[in-house]
Amino acid sequence: MNDFLHQLPTFLGNHFALAALFVILLVALVAMEATRLLRKFKELTPAGLTLLINRENPLLVDLSARADFEKAHVPGARHVLMSQFDPEHKDLAKAKELPVVVMDKDGRGADKAAQRLVKAGFAKVYTLGGGVMAWQQAQLPVAKGNK
């Protein structure tokens, strides 16, 4: 270990670009993790969503495209187009005390909707990590059609 510490300054001097890239990637990783830990909503795994459904009966909101929703969705999920998603809507506002789980096909677009729900005053907001695709990969049941 002592030999490593003696050779480190020489290595860093000879490979400055590599060392700088390492520092940049390390800072980016720490920043991403800090952001994830400080956000006001939580990401669920398919198993975690199953537990939440069995214990608290959450409102499930699927923001997938209509065709994707009709092919497969989590049973009990309500389809809402992202362009029509409004946390201030009177029907959704009634569910402020319920847990709300936001999902989409692949889990990439749900974070923005979850942030909007938190901003609108919803206390228990979750996203499904990996979206409906993760639900299917976990071999959990899916519903088909528009209901």
Structural description of this entry:
The protein folds into 2 domains: 2-37; 40-137, 3-Layer(aba) Sandwich (Oxidized Rhodanese, domain 1), CATH 3.40.250.10. It is built from 7 helices and 5 strands. The protein has helices at 2-14, 16-38, 46-56, 66-71, 90-93, 110-119, 131-137, and strands spanning 42-44, 59-62, 78-79, 100-103, 125-128. With 147 residues, it is an alpha/beta fold. The mean pLDDT is 90. It is elongated, with a radius of gyration of 21 Å. Strands 1-5-4-2-3 form a 5-stranded parallel sheet.
Concise overview:
The protein has 147 residues and is α/β, with parallel strands linked by helices. 50% of the residues lie in helices and 12% in strands.
Query: Between the first and last Cα atoms, what is the distance in angstroms?
Result: 62 Å
* Beta-strand percentage range: 5-15%
Strand pairing plus helix content: what structural class? alpha/beta
CATH architecture of the largest domain: 3-Layer(aba) Sandwich
Kindly report the spatial arrangement of strands forming the biggest sheet.
Answer: 1-5-4-2-3
Under the CATH scheme, which class of the largest domain?
Alpha Beta
Mean pLDDT: 90
| Secondary-structure element string | HHEHEHEHEHEH
Uncertain regions: pLDDT < 50 for 5+ in a row? none
CATH homologous superfamily label of the largest domain: Rhodanese-like domain
CATH topology of the largest domain: Oxidized Rhodanese, domain 1
Q: What Rg do the Cα atoms give?
A: 21 Å
Largest sheet: 5 strands, parallel
The number of distinct structural domains comes to: 2
